[in-house]
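To whoever is on call:

I kicked off a structure prediction for a single chain this morning and the downstream step that reads the tokens threw a length-mismatch warning. I double-checked the sequence; it's 629 residues and nothing unusual in it as far as I can see. Pasting both halves so you can look.
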Amino acid sequence: MPLLESSKKRYRAFRKPERNGADSPTPEADNWRDRWRQRKDHLREYRRWLWPYKGRIIVVFLLALLGAGLSMILPLVTRYIIDDILPASTLTVDQRLTRLTTVCGAMVLLLLFTQVIDTSRSFLMSLLNAKVIFRLRQRLFDRFLRLPLNELAELKSGGIVSRLSQDTDKVTGMVQMALITPGVAAIRVLLTVAVLIFISWQMALIAGAMIPPIVLINLLWVRKVRPIYRAMAQERSEIDGRVTESFGGIRVVRAFRRERKELRDYAVAHHTIIRKNLLAEKLRLVVSTGWGLLIPATSLAVVGFGGYLAIKGQGTIGDIVAFQMYAFMLLHPVSQIVNSLSATQQALAAMERVFDILERPQEKPDRPGAVDVPSPIREITFHAVNFEYREGLPVLADVSLNVPAGSTVALVGPSGGGKTTLVDLVARFHDPTSGAVLVNGIDLRNIRLAGYRRQLAIVPQEVFLFDGTVAENITYGRRSADRRDIIDAATRANAHDFIEELPEGYDTLIGERGLKLSGGQRQRLSIARAILADPEILILDEATSNLDTESELLIQASLVDLLSSRTTFVIAHRLSTIIHADIIVVLHEGRIEQIGPHADLMTHEGLYREMVERQQRLFPETAEALQWD
């Protein structure tokens, strides 16, 4: 079957380095010194994160130590019962029963106390993890919200979600995995070995002989399984991103009949993960087999040698039973120490991914001495602006433009001419490579970004609505608005009538991305959202492109009143919608080709007149609107 062959090829490619005698390639192998220095920096940063909770960590550690110490008592008490109470010929039956009952009762109380301590420790650890993970996720989410747009595009949605969920979970568990668990386990091992030596150093040697094989088996397993888990985590992140992308573009998927292709890709990716998971399970079974042979062999050796010592009069039955119990108690902490190494490695890898994001600079940090946005805004000026997304590939070249407050500026021209980039500079999604964008003569980079963005609203061509009610989407830019303001904004955007026809009116849930609404309805909600925000600067990117002719005419009428008191930048391909603009800027290959009002541009030969005449031929119904005589 193609599915199996495809996933098999991917699996074989993953196993190829291992079969050639090398471990799976890892970044750590390439420049381990730099990675180690970076990891130390991350550990210091993580310690700083944990410092406010140092008291809680100390309490948890002390409780874990107390529980470990109390667990050492039961085998000694068992030895006492077998050697000193049961065979005591100097005591009567009633005396032995009384002593046995007393000791067992005391042990029950001790076990209950130990359980209370362990439960308290677990709860405090969970509470500590919850506090740390909330703080870390909140900080990480805030940094994602403020990262430059190009970095967010590189991360993709799957990478963002995996860092916020899986990686933060692993990072916050490092206190338990890297400190408390191995620390307490090491103390358990030392206490157990000390008690074993106290009882019989000969049997202690036999019990201690099983520690090196256990460590070796687990270390080999960790070394083999670590790259498998790393690869599985990476593929899950890619799958999450692909799923998000597929359902975000579900209309395109269905329109091009790609459901089977998306399903196949999803199945192949998961099938590959299953193969890798089965490989990890095979390795686990090898370890389990080793344990299955080692434990009974150790138990048999302890019983055999203990019996020999008992026969020779150098030991007791109680010694043998206590040794058996301590031998089993020795296995668990040794395994915990080795496994914590693997878990700590995974947590360190996750920590690198998390702190790598936290160390990145935010989108546009305010400069020292930045000022509040001037109010009112009197003019926006482009002074010799050049911009490049990639070095050597200019998108805007030597753009100079003065826009008085209250003006409507229409940006027209062939696709790729720089129209969207220009309004992105107005919104300060990017900064000029050279030159400056000035607001009232102040460089936009010297104005506090948050205050400036409050004076800005955007109606994009690709409308994005959130999974909530109609009212919540309209008030996204102004949460304090009351229902009267919401209805007024919807009415001015020609949206009130269709909203009233929805099942719950303004309280209707519109679904993720507004899929329950038509394209024109989503566009009108987006316009209502911008109207309600009441900005000084408005950006309309093909704001009426998804509307039918009747709705477009109604909204054009409402926008005349809306735009009259605002500085507006309009990107338009349908020139009939912008003939009343105060300034029309014709952009071609990143440069201003022409500039002026519609009537003036039509009196000169040039790109704008060619565009108008072309649209008159293609769309005769707009010919009258585009007349200039």
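Update from on-call: the warning came from a stale cache, not from the record. Cleared it. Sanity check on the structure: The first strand starts at residue 379 and ends at 390.
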